[in-house]
Amino acid sequence: MHTKIAVLPGDGIGPEVTAQAVRVLDAVARRWGHSFETREALLGGCAIDATGSPMPMETVALCHEADAVLLGAVGGPKWDDPAARVRPEQGLLGLRKELGLYANLRPVAPHRALLDIAPLKPDRLGGVDLIVVRELTGGIYFGEKQREPGWALDTCLYTEKEVERIVRVACKLASARRGRVTSVDKANVLETSRLWRATAERVVRDEFPAIELQHMLVDAAAMHLIRRPSDFDVIVTENMFGDILTDEASMLAGSMGLLPSASLGEGKRGLYEPIHGSAPDIAGKGIANPYATILSVAMMLRHSFGLETEAAAVEAAVSSCLDEGVWTADVAKAGAPTVSTVKAGDAVIAALGAGQPVAV
Questions:
Q1: Which of 180, 214, 261, 299 allows an S-S link to 233, with CB 3.0 to 4.6 Å?
Q2: Residues of the domain holding 76
Q3: Are residues 242 and 271 in the same domain?
Q4: Is there a single domain that holds both residue 226 and residue 175?
Q5: Which positions are catalytic?
Q6: How far is residue 257's CA from residue 331's CA, in Å, rounded to a whole number?
Q7: CA–CA separation, 98 vs 276, rounded Å?
Q8: What is the tens place of the pLDDT at every residue in 216-257?
Q9: Reported pTM
């Protein structure tokens, strides 16, 4: 298999963690006989500094040509002025829109060796294995915005089509899991949520009758993610609710440095990135956790390239490293030794057995 991958390292620790993810891709290519062609481009703050735009047209063109996109992180204090006309986040939001990536998938499954580093008691985390499906290109983030002296306006708009397609993604995922979908809204207050709820019911009834659909208000969902997280299988929700709930859910794993994500559209091409930010306070120190970015590569192999064996092998390699105590500073237990970003990448590659090609 020969594929083209656009690599957008971005800002802060982005270049450090994406470098390790690309090394893992190379190891997968060696072991299974694939060819992954990677090309880098600018996005976010580094793109603003170099071109004045957070999403240069050269980057857009490269991503359109690519079979998948690997992203590090964008943003940082240098560009952190809410009143600024141009901001790094505009590059990421714009790229999602440009590529038609409307479904953001964030799996959460706490690792058994790290249950005691999470804010919750370990007994609350047993059996937690959920995935949040967040609608990514609609809602209040993309609605009409207006600012006048003394008031401001942000419009939340959703169409039936937008709700239908994201609910279908959730139901297809649930069909291969435990068959349960929790649709999160605020239907007791918002008209968009009432549309969301009615549309979700219709899609499940007409297209996925075997799926068990549950509705939950967003405030209740936030509570139950902490109170009884193992009850959830697939959560589907709108853009802003998903943004908030996925960060909350990430704490079930103890660190954002462990959790990947995929942003998908109608075709095979997707954008894959760790859920963490650019962490400028540790950028350049060589201590960032690359596991989330490496696991994002596993999602890329699975969802964009259909390479399930390779994806599972990458996930197993990361799991093995965590079992063996190959921990970066963000997940290490008190008094335990820590490894650098590069050493964590080395360990994953060694666990993959990249030096032993196999027949394909």
A1: 180
A2: 1-106+256-360
A3: no
A4: yes
A5: 141, 186, 219, 243, 247
A6: 8
A7: 22
A8: 999 999 999 999 999 999 999 999 999 999 989 988 988 888
A9: 0.92
